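Design job #97: recover the sequence.
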């Protein structure tokens, strides 16, 4: 399970002060669209995850659809998503199966 940075770079200044001041920027900054780390993870997964293995990532609110598309484009088979306690789609799960 990974919790990559998923905040859009320009949105960091609008975060709650207790988040923006105390969290390292590298832990928050997901690039221009908030999805840079997910593209990296998806690209690397086929070489790093054994056949039948899974990749699970936390997603920002409203990002599950695009992250799922990124993972599917990398050849991963989607499972989920899973919701958090507030009922928001929060975790993308994808399985790797070598062909």
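Job complete. Output follows.
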């Amino acid at each position: 399970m990974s919790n990559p940075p998923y905040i859009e770079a320009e949105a960091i200044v609008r975060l709650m002060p207790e988040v923006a001041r105390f969290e390292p920027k590298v832990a928050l900054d997901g690039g221009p669209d908030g999805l840079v780390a997910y593209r990296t993870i998806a690209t690397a997964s086929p070489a790093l995850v054994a056949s039948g293995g899974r990749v699970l990532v936390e997603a920002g609110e409203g990002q599950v659809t695009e992250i799922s598309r990124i993972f599917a484009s990398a050849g991963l088979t989607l499972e989920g998503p899973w919701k958090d306690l507030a009922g928001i789609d929060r975790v993308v799960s994808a399985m790797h199966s070598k062909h």
